From TrEMBL:
It comes from the Bacteria. InterPro entries: Spore_V_AE, SpoVA. Keywords: Membrane, Transmembrane, Transmembrane helix. This is Stage V sporulation protein AE. Signal peptide: none annotated. The gene is spoVAE. The keyword Cell membrane does not apply. The chain crosses the membrane at residues 82-111. Pfam families: SpoVAC_SpoVAEB (PF03862).
Amino acid sequence: MFISAFIVGGLICVIGQLMMDVGKLTPAHTLSSLVVFGAILDGLGLYEPLIDFAGAGATVPITSFGNALVHGAMAEAEQHGIVGVVTGIFEVTSAGISSAIIFSFIAALIFRPKG
């Protein structure tokens, strides 16, 4: 289990690094591309089997955010129609985004940057 998580997570990171080094993409373009790649894989039904195989190796990298966006939108669209597309995106990703904002704010209060 740990080996497959390490290999898959490492391969996702290697792809991102190659996009920046070889493809000369900026970090923002690389980040956006990996999110879109995760969304496409989920839309094709390929990201869930990857999560089943690799566990945290597939859920920790940024590609998982794209997976969460599409997964939430598709699940809610089945229940609530077109309105569910928007609400599903917010429902699935709101906890992660909210916690990132809160913990970043707390870190900014505790630690003072030098510069």
